[in-house]
Specification:
CobW/HypB/UreG_nucleotide-bd, Plastid transcriptionally active 17, 18 strands, about 450 residues, CobW-like_C
């Protein structure tokens, strides 16, 4: 049964889907991440959201995944008429309230950035959620003292957002929406320095009440130019995450702050190190968190229509305006020759790094490849990858050329959350270049690339 929701109210809900269905019929490889499209002209007012709920199953060799579940979100628009299940059109508009997560290790400059945001002249009314670990809300008072523009500053003091106070975050956002909707334009959440962003990100998808009203705009990660390397190098006991690495891995925007305290070569090697972990994020160097506001607000880091800029070569993603020196490390791997079936790829791992000896286990990889993907094979590849490795795949974004699909297929995911949709049609003579980026732990890069390549026609 498909859930259909009117776009006029610009909301969406989610379904948790069992991956493995036991009936014989459902053991078919029919997980439809991607669907063939028929062209159709629809007035926007008729566009509805629809979930691929009737066809979710995967062909597995064994039933070891029987208990695994993952969440599939689509923003696929369909016609409201009878035979609409295969009709895909454009990505619908999204009017939910944007929320930005500011994260970064202890003392990296989160509150300083927040103050900069709140005191800058941008005309936005911002609701702030501050998470302090401990009884005293020092950051809250600092922020409150500096600003009159924050519509609301809410403190969460009794634990860390990513673990003990997740429920509080949900309640807090729900309350803000219920009581103050229309009185603020943006929510900014400052996490504690020890927060792992993953569970906070997942809250925006897992909690229906939040998902319906608030959309995650982006994760902004502050990195302390002076002390970050020590934290990145720290080896944690087995099973314990290195928060400094996680915070970089999930970022849409990275701010290397406190650059006044170190020399150029330190910044350059830190930047290199960050790029090994996360190739997708934009990166800027700052003192006292002074960035243009549109660098941190209105990012669209989880928006399907902005996938292209995220999967494009990261050489364009560092702010060159103020730093014209020594950024060759961001350019030297992107001479991709897009011959049919010949994938250019990036393995951002320790083989490329000369600055550290520890393998943090978190890295990025990208595949850039011209060619057309077989629909069934691509569905199977993506579905299997998500099912088997979603714990290790922190974030992924992609833009695909699929056989029989007139539009580019864009997708993004965070662990077991997947969102995908066709976006604009391919131009007549446009090369069909697929671009996929993964950030994750223990990525078997050769295997992933091999799997991808096997889907090409
Ligand atoms: N020298 C220098 N100091 C900075 C810069 N940015 C922030 N600071 C100072 O660093 C200290 C920590 O900054 P905060 O903004 O409180 O850092 P935070 O990440 O919010 O810290 P926690 O909440 O403890 O995790 C403050 O004394 C800031 O004034 C910078 O670019 N250069």
């Amino acid at each position: 049964m498909a859930a259909t929701i009117s776009m006029e109210i610009a909301t969406a809900t989610f379904r948790t889907l069992d991956i493995l269905h036991t009936s014989a019929a459902r053991r078919q490889p029919n997980l439809r991440f991607l669907k063939r499209s028929k062209s159709v002209n629809l007035p926007t007012s008729q566009i509805t959201l629809k979930y691929f709920s009737s066809s979710c199953g995967l062909l597995f060799k064994s039933n070891q995944y029987a208990s695994r579940r993952f969440r599939l979100f689509t923003t696929t628009a369909t016609a409201t008429d009878q035979d609409s299940s295969d009709v895909l059109t454009k990505i619908p508009p999204d009017n939910r309230i944007p929320a930005t997560i500011i994260t970064g290790f202890l003392g990296s400059g989160k509150t300083t950035l927040l103050n900069h945001i709140l005191t800058a002249d941008h005309g936005k009314r911002i609701a702030v959620i501050e998470n302090e670990y401990g009884e005293v809300d020092i950051d809250g008072s600092l922020v409150a003292a500096k600003t009159a523009v924050a519509e609301d500053i809410v403190m969460l003091n009794n634990g860390c957002l990513c673990c003990t106070v997740r429920g509080d975050l949900v309640r807090m956002i729900a309350e803000l929406v219920e009581t103050k909707k229309g009185r603020f334009d943006h929510i900014v959440i400052e996490t504690t320095g020890l927060a792992n962003p993953a569970p906070i990100i997942q809250t925006f998808y897992a909690e229906e009440e939040i998902f319906n009203n608030v959309k995650l705009d982006g994760v902004v990660t502050l990195v302390d130019a002076k002390h970050a390397t020590i934290h990145l190098d720290e080896i944690k006991p087995k099973g314990v995450v290195n928060e400094a690495i996680e915070q970089i891995a999930y970022a849409d925007r990275i701010i290397v702050n406190k650059t006044d305290l170190v020399g150029e070569s330190d910044i350059a090697s830190l930047t290199k190190r960050i790029r090994i972990i996360n190739t997708m994020a934009n990166l800027k160097r700052t003192e006292y968190g002074k960035v243009d506001l549109d660098y941190v607000l209105g990012i669209g880091g989880f928006d399907l229509e902005r996938i292209e800029s995220a999967v494009d070569a990261e050489g364009s993603k560092e702010d060159h305006a103020s730093h014209k020196h020594d950024h060759d490390h961001d350019h030297d791997h992107h001479d991709h020759d897009h011959r049919e079936g010949d994938c250019g790829h990036e393995h951002h791992d320790d083989h490329h790094s000369h600055d550290h000896t520890h393998d943090p286990g978190v890295s990025s990889m990208s595949i850039v490849c011209e060619g057309t993907l077989d629909l069934e094979k691509a569905n199977m590849w993506l579905g299997t990858l998500l099912t088997e490795q979603s714990e290790d795949i922190y974030r992924m974004k992609g833009l695909l050329a699929v056989d029989g699909m007139d539009e580019r297929f864009v997708f993004q995911g965070v662990h077991d959350i997947f969102q995908g949709s066709p976006d604009r049609p391919w131009e007549k003579d446009e090369p069909r270049v697929n671009k996929v980026v993964f950030i994750g732990k223990n990525l078997d890069k050769e295997e992933i690339e091999k799997g991808f390549r096997a889907c090409l026609i």
